[in-house]
Design goal:
Layout: H1 4-12, E1 22-25, E2 34-39, E3 42-45, H2 53-59, H3 70-77, E4 82-83, E5 87-93, E6 101-102, H4 110-118, E7 123-126, E8 133-136, E9 145-150, H5 160-168, E10 177-182, H6 187-195, E11 199-208
Parallel strand pairs: 1-3, 9-10
Antiparallel strand pairs: 2-3, 2-11, 4-11, 5-10, 5-11, 6-7, 7-8, 8-9
Helix pairs in contact: 5-6
Length: about 210
Amino acid sequence: MTSAGNLVVAAWRGEHRPADGSWQRIASWQTGLYAVLSFTGHAAVSAPESVSDADLTSWGVDGFGGAHDPRVMTRLVGEDGWVDVLDAVLVAAGTGDGGLVARPDLARHPRVAHAREVRDEVEVFGWHGRDDVVVTRGLSFGGLAVVSYEIEPGARGEGLGTRTVQAARGLVPEGEPVIALVSPGNVSSLRAALRAGFEPVGSVQLYRPA
């Protein structure tokens, strides 16, 4: 079964699925963790085995926005499940040129704690002497690196976010894809990722049924 990583990298490379409103089923994110992905005119859904393709279609899943319909997510999650925020999926090529250092002292940062809930093999990096956080390596995208970042409130608005996410590309070997997930409403982070060379390819929403 196709993985989310394969679809994201293909879209980044310009190998787009037909923008005809179709959708497909993909492998689960992790054990007990699933995702809904949307691209231009196409969607991909992972769901428990108890949810059939016929169920998803009858609930309104399609590639024209229906896959992210709150009513669809509610049915998938149930009354006591968990749904993550909707994130834009952006991709860039790694540069392999370093700049950031390992920061295990930031392991208890809320950004790191959330990453560990939805990703495997989480590592923490940052600038020496600062508490800005970069989290990388997540196997949820088929082994691709996933970058999260957060800038200290007092240092925002000075271009540090762009420099940080640009430096995060250096944690990945040159030419290999690295992913950033950013809430569309977080305009500052979205602009930082775009300025750092990341390109939007779609959107994703994680969920965990009760």
